[in-house]
């Protein structure tokens, strides 16, 4: 975010670095106001949402969910971190919706990891559904599938046995699926 703020200044004549420093020093009300202020760049909204999320302020929930579904992996990772700390009861449902959306599979890695961290009732069903869809031969999203396998192994829920058994036949998932199955007992 700092790099984006610094890069913004020379090209647009804006006060990117000053805005960055102001957001670092801002209190919750100023941060919340910046989430809806017109004309702010994405990095500024991301910083405000991240700081509010880490502070446990639920006003950050919706912007963080939008960032969790962003095409830029570092933004997704930061949003997932803040959402895990935020502990909003809507988080697991939102992460499950993002993880299971077949049109957004390329961006599902962080929602999958967040579901594992949350250990919510939605976690195992969402991870098994996502993994089942990704077991097709030559599926390009094997990293998301691997995250599902690892997550299901971490969660240790016996409902995952069938999909993990099927994952053993996938060359890139076999070792992790076998380890996950051992963890089920």
UniProtKB/TrEMBL annotation:
<keyword id="KW-0456">Lyase</keyword>
<dbReference type="InterPro" id="IPR016024">
    <property type="entry name" value="ARM-type_fold"/>
</dbReference>
<protein>
    <submittedName>
        <fullName>Adenylosuccinate lyase</fullName>
    </submittedName>
</protein>
<dbReference type="InterPro" id="IPR004155">
    <property type="entry name" value="PBS_lyase_HEAT"/>
</dbReference>
<dbReference type="GO" id="GO:0016829">
    <property type="term" value="F:lyase activity"/>
</dbReference>
<dbReference type="InterPro" id="IPR011989">
    <property type="entry name" value="ARM-like"/>
</dbReference>
